[in-house]
Amino acid sequence: MFTGRKAKVFGTGHSFERIINDEIVSFIERWELFIPNWYEDGKWKIGPKIGQPRYSCCFGHLEGGDHPPFEYKKGQTFTIEEGRAILKLDMASKAKFVNKKLTVPVTQFMFGGFISLTYQFGQGRIQDAEDGFRREHDAEGNETKVSIEPIRPFQLINDGNYIDGILEIEKLNFTTNGAYSTGHHVRRACEIALCMTKK
Fold first, then answer.
1. 22-195 belongs to which CATH class?
2. Tens of pLDDT along 8-61?
3. For residue 183, what are the CA distances in angstroms to 13, 149, 175, 179, 199?
């Protein structure tokens, strides 16, 4: 149930500045952790590699993403500096999505919390949740859209319901097959805490 509280969090520090500062980068680094090589991170659900392992590297950079490296290479390793450079490019892509979604001034920490949410949950899955469904794929790659209650944190914030919008983040705690995820739940709680932090 929404509270309908049309109040800005703490009432100060809201702006359209929205920069990716060191605090936001450090927040995501702590959650993703640096792994200096490619590691298996699920499987391809669609496309020519369907059913094959899908790999990530560095701070959760998934192959086939918006920026290089685009493809898993056996034995490839990365320095922490290379990992951070990749992370900042990936965060910039997520920031573009968040900037398009938010039409009202927010605090720097709110901006960071939503970048973290988008980084881990994904732009596509957030948009699907807003539209009231999630996607499932069978072993052959056939897609099914499963109806869910719309989850709309950005809309609530844009309507002035800052607190309700931030609390709505917690609902994005399920895996790609719809199961409740404790890991997602804990990260969502930390993102909510970050959003509530006074600038």
1. mainly alpha
2. 554 456 788 888 989 899 999 999 999 999 999 999 988 899 989 999 999 999
3. 30, 21, 10, 11, 27
3-state SS record for the chain: CCCCCCCCCCCCCCECCCCCCHHHHHHHHHHHCCEEEEEEEEECCCCCCCCCEEEEEECCEECCCCCCCCCCCCCCECCHHHHHHHHHHHHHHHHHHHHHHCCCCECHHHHHHHHHHHHHHCHHHHHHHHHCEEEEECCCCCEEEEECCCCCHHHHHHCCCHHHHHHHHHHCCECCCCCECHHHHHHHHHHHHHHCCCC
**Which residues touch 124 (CB under 8 Å, ≥6 apart)?**
none
* Token digits of residue 108: 């720097």
Q: What is the pLDDT of residues 67-118, one digit of tens each?
A: 999 999 999 999 999 999 999 999 999 999 999 999 999 999 999 999 999 9
- Locate 111 and state its tokens: 């901006």
